[in-house]
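User: Please predict the structure of the protein below. I'd like the answer in structure-token form so I can feed it into my own downstream comparison script.

Assistant: Understood. Taking the following sequence of 282 residues as input:
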Amino acid sequence: MWAFVIGAGAAGLLAGTVVRVLADGFTAERSVETPRHDQTLDVPQPEPAPGDPRSERIARRAETDPRSERRAGWAETDPRSERRAGWAETDPRSGWRARWAEARAVLKEAPRRWPVWSWPPWVEVGTAAVCAVVAWRLAGTALLWAWGYAAVAGVLLSVVDWRTRRLPDVITLPSCLVLAVLLVPTGDLGPALLGGLALGGAYAVMWFVRPDALGFGDVKLAGVAGMLAGPLGVDRWLAAAMGGLVLGALYAVMLLITRRATMKTQFPLGPFIAAGVLVALW
């Protein structure tokens, strides 16, 4: 038993290096822009060499071509230009394209920045500790694989949220699908889905009431947490649901006592949601 827990901790230590590299990629400031469908890429054209007879012909053609004036007039009076601009501003696909472009950039840069170790190794040690706790509580059960994946993904989301105040959709949304696939062999997919919908719905109501105090990324993470706690029973689901809020409230009180924050100070709630699920498992 203890050999299995130690092995899970060692595997978590190695997975922590992956978590740190990916989290550093999301933390770095990057500008990911994709051209809209009504825009064209500004590709520089090669200029003719001095003395090239083609340059004079091109200049004369541009001055005498009647199509240039018609094209300019069409661009000014074409009603489709305004519609395209409006579609580009309201198109929800543009946000998704930027997020997936960021994820691809992070995965592409990760092997280049792959270190052997980093000091202090808080991320590595934290991932190892979470993996060891999961192995200790779920050794020999069918839920081990789903919780093992959630342990690594939860640490990654917690680190990213703590540093950047956001929970990337490219991690939370695929995690729901991965957990569903891993929970199918256990026979607990039904309780997991009910737990995810219940906890995600509760956080959605809080987000609708106070959108300034809760992010929609927290709602998605709460759905993932509900999927993990659902198969454990109603009591542990309630412990996971209340654990994140209680831990977050205790942290807020500590900030107020130490005068490091005010009543209007915002802090990331994602790490406390993940910690609440771990407390319920403990």
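That's the full token string. Residues 2-27 form the longest helix (26 residues).
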